[in-house]
Amino acid sequence: MHSIRILGAGSIGNHLANAARSFGWRVTLTDIDPAALERTRTSIYPQRYGTWDEEIVLKDSRAAMNEPADVVFIGTPPDSHIALANAVLDQVTPNVLLLEKPLAGPDLAGCAELLARVKAKGVFGAVGYNHTLGQNTVLADGLLKAGEIGSVSTISARTREHWGGIFKAHPWLSGPSDSYLGFAARGGGATGEHSHGINMWQHFANLIGAGRVAEVTAVLDMFQDGGCDYDRLSYAVLRTENGLVGDVIQDVVTEPADKSCRIQGQKGFLEWRVNHSPGNDSVALGLGSDRKETLIAKTRADDFKAEIAHLEQVMAGKVQHSPIALERGLDTMMVIAAIFKSHHSGRRVQIDWSKGYVTDAIR
Question: Right CATH number for 3-100 from 3.40.50.720, 3.40.718.10, 2.40.240.20, 1.10.3720.10?
Fold first, then answer.
């Protein structure tokens, strides 16, 4: 039986706890705030999953820091991830160190050092971009590998969703100013919080051999009010090392949400969607006048169960190239940082991957 220690008893921490318990794992859910642990036990968990699970151990994060676990998950605000990851590695060496997305703030502080440390300790580092593990992604990956749409001309990704849903899941927050969400520098705003769009664009670009993103041109709609400073809309044009050009749009204002990725090939297109209809993700394949759409039943909890199932495969040595590996999350962080630099400089920027995961690599 595997074990997981979760830092952060917010919405994602509860999701991971439930997913791990569904696989029979031992779960210790921790937080530095006693009120957060009480909300978990009496409100969040039983309201979502029907009843509180007495097998879940609730503890203060600091008191549990030296307790070993197969998997340690850090589900705190992005600007705390690196420091907490290092604090964990100071105490224990888990098989897996999983951090929620985005990995950090756009300043990339400590990113390169964390990667080096994880590798030196032989830990599998991962970032929670779990849409890459969904059944709709598995289906789309297979169709792309089979060459169903021919050579790819462009990719367009969208994560456009009003963040009212986030606050509904966190009713103790009155708005973006109450957390990192209202501060782009802390990993909030559209570019950071909704970076599944960037990550899925990179996932499909990597799958077809287009290489990593080498050039970014971006415009942000910045919002400053009530102490907040975040991007409401993020628009980026990307070019890869091998010349693929496409775009990513992310925002926190669109209703109903649009979480999609359209991959246009010479013979047709693939359209990947999350929550295409109530209870369903989807993949559409269009070849000429023919369009076939496959609906895939899914709940929100399934996103995290897929993550736990994947980590079981990782720990069993059955995964060679993980789409949620730390390096993949760092690739997304580099694009996030490049988007902000492009916007603030008013020009196209390049990413020099030979310099590693540092801001000096973006010029």
Answer: 3.40.50.720
